[in-house]
Design goal:
The structure is a homohexamer. Helices cover about 50% and strands about 10% of the residues of chain A. In chain A, the strands form 3 sheets. Chain A has a 5-stranded parallel beta sheet with strand order 1-4-7-10-13. A 5-stranded parallel beta sheet of chain A has the order 3-6-9-12-14. A 4-stranded parallel beta sheet of chain A has the order 2-5-8-11, with no helix packed on it. The first copy, chain A, contains 10 helices and 14 strands. The first copy, chain A, has 2 domains: about 160 residues, Orthogonal Bundle (serine acetyltransferase, domain 1), CATH 1.10.3130.10; about 80 residues, Hexapeptide repeat proteins (UDP N-Acetylglucosamine Acyltransferase, domain 1). Chains in contact: A-B, A-C, A-D, A-E, B-C, B-D, B-F, C-E, C-F, D-E, D-F, E-F. Chains A and C meet through helix 3, helix 4, helix 5, helix 6 and helix 7 of A and helix 1, helix 2 and helix 9 of C. Chains A, B, C, D, E, F: It catalyses: L-serine + acetyl-CoA = O-acetyl-L-serine + CoA. Chains A, B, C, D, E, F: InterPro entries: Hexapep, LbH_SAT, Ser_AcTrfase_N_sf, Serine_acetyltransferase, Trimer_LpxA-like_sf. Chains A, B, C, D, E, F: Keywords: Acyltransferase, Amino-acid biosynthesis, Transferase.
């Protein structure tokens, strides 16, 4: 006899699962109907290799074989991504009348559009790498930046996740984003819109919300939050969804470590936000905001959220 | 001859090890006497699969095979956990007169009690998933929450680690907790008591101390600290152990990003703690504390620790 | 025909790569010329095992076989590290006239010097473990500290990375450091100089800059930044490199969570820096700085960076 | 440019493939439509473990957990086997009008019947193990026999393959049989009917044909062939399929190394066939056939095929 | 102290190695200078996949992605094969004055010629598959033959090994051949010349010697040997190398199980060799040789070697 | 509900297992008490690497690191082998009164004696490699022989297995031997005594019995059997164990393919046995035996067993 009452535990666990499923009005299905983390990991690794074959691809690749590698790798990765998209779409629409063939065609169409953006993704990432190289005096080469900087790792993920989000695959997009979050401590919602040449130094603790809009050549330090204030409530007391609720950050802004910017405010072109300040109002282009300036100029305290 | 003076380095390393062992009054043993990280990882992965078989278990599992999977998986995982518990108990009691059979029986007894709590753990985690789904306007389904949210990942680990801690297996509990810390940047001491429906949004940088007590339906944002003030010192100048030294957070409290609450204070039911505030005193039920309110109402400065 | 226009995407990706390479003035090479993350991971894992064979080495090792394990492991690891050093040196000097044999000899010389420091690295790490054990009332044994504490994990990496940095292998050093950063959320630049008995509690979000100098028996809590103020600019408007720009922290200093210390200031021996304070000036030995004290004594606001 | 004319080779390979496909009248399909070797390997490994859990199952299994292991393992293995059966059935019937659901139900029905035979398979294998133990003076325990004897390994495979063959899954059956062939050099067609207590000593080079019928307690040595004579030809000059064309070997027969028995002859109960003899006629029960006896008694030479 | 006298054993082993090396007049080298089995295995697996992508390639490949897969796979495999060829050529010529660059160019040239033969190899293998399908009444489809028949597995290896042998890479060729030998028990020397449509039924124990020449549409059964008689000796008593010493087997010959044909004899077109016969003389076209006929017609005994 | 009646099958399988166990008079144990194939495989791979570090050891080993590799490898392998020996000894003596500590000491003693023979094993294997190189005109280097020849692979295993057999670990010895059997088709009982310079060409199908004694510089071709005649029977009708029942083959003998030698006969020094002959009597030193000579000289037929 087992030292542990396995049968009893199995039976209690089944009961708890059944309560959950019944509360969720799940019909007893057979197969799993969710994208798989492992599959998403594989797809992302493949896409990263295909985007930067000689630096983040397989160790033994040679330049003359790049195109063969890239072609095979994206062929496989897109196919696998399409399968995961089918899982997500089936999950989302599970009460609708959609045939498997329709689901499949729908997924294929979305992934095709995603695929066509890959060259643009690479071009954008090159600007991010360049921004990191130029923005950090300690950076010794563009390749070091690509290999080592967590901010760059996070952006590779975000620039893959964002088009997926826009193509209606928000669960897959989220899985890609959380992969970066776990690796880097940088939490960018895949819905955020981020311009070219974006650089996050150190990065740990940065949070960027779903409706944030960031211009070109913006620089952020660790523990910066671009968040929402309390959510607007509709007449039924529910949070209103889909409203723009995160900051707009215009071109050439620099935001120092620990600064918190909340709500649909605009940080004007070229402004500088000092470390640890708390901003809930618009900032004029070119302005420089510090804790001291805040107190002096506005007569109010940061942190009134 | 080797390019590197291997023999010399080996010999110096041996000498340093010996110094350490002699300073630690270690007797030369034969085998390793510590739980293994790899084994703990395997146990945790197995338990996670057994708790959520169709969503976090093996990709090809089908609902009709769930119970077989759960039974075999927990049978193996509990056995392996028992072995690791033997390692911890032997390590802890290594100077005592305990026979291997007694150690084994002791470990078995503790793991049996742990095992019986698995269904309750699952039920609690369901409330956490629900809280995250309801608390985040961006959440699109309970499954997305379970799959993607680092706060939920951290709680799965905590709800496994906490019973181990209470059963006197604090090293194993700590190893489970640090696994979550590494993955999510959320640092919950396994000793912390946390009620149902707990939700941490974003999560990076959250720290919750050993004697913290958290009620039901509490919500925390990133970089919140529930910490200790300086430790009380006993007559010999040593920190007093085991005293309650972290906050009590009652039901329905919300604590915004970056807030720091230190010491055995009580945050009353339904209170709201604003972003970045520093709290070292009790907060009344229903109160709303912001940096501004702190200054106004209390005439004192946060941060006097 | 493929559902995805693979050929077209491959061709566009090639074009983007070519633009990047041409902008970077890369000559078309054949092989990859960068250290490999996987190889660095393997080297670090091997060195960690060799430094702490019975606690972080292979599970089945026995004390009587330690030296055999250590000898073989460092023999292989140093050889592999030398190969990665060749990659880095070739990358750095790729326009110079250096023969492969010279590169190889150069790398060998540097790795030999690194190797000879391994015993000292172990001895230093023993002091860090001891400091964590003594500094945290929750720590139950030195072995728990070594196995579980992210601050110790980060220091193991740093004490490997720092000598590599000093030996001119800054890319490899950075790769080692970022490995710790990803695992622990602690971001220590490999250039930072850190004395014996260093302890970081919780750790997430700590940032320590390249030219920081830290004495003995210093303790840091989570989210402490030892950073630079804005970089001094030379006559051409470029940041001046190599200048000391991060704090000097003398022996026995304690810095509480969230404190930010910027610029080449000195925190005097035995000083205490309170939580969340913002320091940009020297602090006297033995002083205790809190947000309140800052306001009172200096009449100025933190955060003027 | 690549050192190898990859594009040209790819294009020539495509042309050769197209010629083959067109010669085979294949319509261009999308997916692979064949069982996978890797999947069959996994299924067989699982079934072997489930049949002999404590001896050929996972190393850490304990007797009290056997049933949990067996239940989960066969649940997964049968499911996987069903999928492979769908592949085979689709392959076989690829020109027919069968819906996927019909294929699936058909496969399920066959695998269910297979599954119900597992206990009988184990019981038969126990008799084979016993026969080997009793038949070989060198055998020291029944467990040694199960672990080490290639003849037993081959029979485990055959006793799995034969029911699959009888259930119309002859491709899967063949894949199982060839797995044993590759491991042991013993080539038993899955169609062969073999009674209880069958023992093959040494085994290498044994060949047993599709329509062979072997009674109980038969013993064979290495390089014995139970083969067909030249195939009977039908009026169109094609080999006639499905006719019994291999020997019938009755109970208690012993056949020594290198003997060749060809055609639908009957070797009577208890007969002995000497080493290297060539038999193409019936042998009476109890008879002893050697090369000498053949010459003497029959005045003919072996080998007239 | 170790239970085993490791140091003593290591030292004795070193001494034995040194004796061997000194007897072999090896100069102490640094690195290994032999092709690696693991690398050859990988190359062969890749080539097999590239030759039969939809049947022996990766499970998830789809027809529309075949060319991408084939291109990338052979690009990598040929590169890896070239590296192994460098190892072999360096090994062979280790006393010559060959620069690394010359070795590399030599290897590249040979592998390029090999690569150009891949389409012809596939075309030949298609004839072998067809011959097996037509020659075995039990074969149910050409795909079963490709997937399951050890004779076909052996020919895939031989048709890869033979061109390598002809290009002077006989060690690599041998490694490929022995891979098939281990899997199938069929031992074909890579030097043997074998025409289209070759079929080996069952196969175990077949041996085909280095200078054997086999025509088209030849069929062999298990344990057939096409071997050499005793080697001709030159004036110094050494075996003469390079002389044709194995049989010539013309088109359409069938050789039954266990037959042994030795020396440079010719088996004429369309001849049949019976089971177990021993042939050391030419056989006329169309003749049928059995043990009986041998005795009758030639008055001599087989086996006089 | 599952498509397959899992519970019913599990229950029937349990019943069959119980019948077996009860017939075998097994007491219900907990853990597995048999050596593990996987562990034996690992040990053998390690020993092979330690015996031939630069040719069969890890690819990246360099000569200057050989001793470190060898020391660590045999330290681990011997330890693991000792554990497997404990399993075998416990299995063998399971009804005896042996304490775990006694078992452990017993195993240690045997493995220590085995370990001391490793250098002699290497020296013997060098003579086998040399014999193969000199005996096969096709062999191009001693390294090709070591890497490629199945006869050499089989001898590496035998020269490891034989001392284990002599030390009373016959189950482990058998597992090692069957590993070679599966890889090469060569079946050498670990009890066989084989002198230096032993060469098996091609090898498939060779069988060498437990009490065979083979001198120095003996050469065998494929499918040679050195077997037993029918076993002598004792008064109770059981085969008598332990009697010498296989041939003695003196120095310098050559035995051609397919020859069968049965019983405790002696093949005198320098004799030659022709292909396919059947020998059951002594052969004089220097004699040459062929099928023809057998008939002529002895008036008897082979095959009378």
């Amino acid at each position: 006899m087992s030292a542990f009452p396995i049968d009893e535990i199995v039976s209690s666990l089944r009961q708890v699962r059944n309560e959950w499923r019944s509360a969720q009005q799940r019909v007893a299905g057979g197969e799993r109907q969710l994208p798989s983390r492992a599959a998403v990991d594989e797809v992302v690794e493949s896409l990263i290799g295909a985007l930067f074959p000689m630096r983040l691809g397989p160790a033994h690749l040679r330049e003359e074989g790049e195109d063969f590698y890239v072609a095979h790798t994206i062929d496989q990765a897109l196919r696998q991504l399409q399968e995961q998209a089918v899982q997500e779409l089936r999950h989302v629409r599970r009460l609708d009348a959609v045939t498997p063939a329709e689901l499949r065609a729908d997924a294929e169409q979305r992934i095709r559009e995603f695929a066509l953006q890959l060259p643009a993704i690479r071009a954008l990432l090159d600007t991010d790498v360049m921004a990191a190289y130029q923005g950090d005096p300690a950076a010794q080469s563009v390749d070091e930046v690509l290999l080592c900087y967590p901010g760059v790792t996070a952006m590779i993920h975000h620039r893959i996740a964002h088009p997926l989000y826009r193509l209606g695959l928000s669960l897959l997009a989220r899985m890609v984003a959380e992969r970066a979050h776990a690796q880097t401590g940088i939490d960018i919602h895949p819905g955020a819109t981020i311009g070219a040449g974006f650089f996050m130094d150190h990065g740990t603790g940065i949070v960027i919300g779903e409706t944030a809009v960031i211009g070109q050549h913006v620089r952020l330090y660790q523990q910066v939050t671009l968040g929402a204030k309390r959510f607007p409530i509709d007449e039924n007391g529910h949070p209103q969804k889909g409203l723009p609720r995160h900051p707009v950050v215009e071109d050439d802004v620099v935001i120092y470590a620990g600064a918190t910017i909340l709500g649909r405010v605009t940080i004007g072109k070229g402004a500088t936000i000092g470390g640890n300040v708390w901003v809930t109002d618009d900032v004029l282009p070119g302005a420089s905001v510090t804790q001291a300036s805040l107190q002096k100029n506005r007569g109010s305290r940061p942190g009134d959220c």
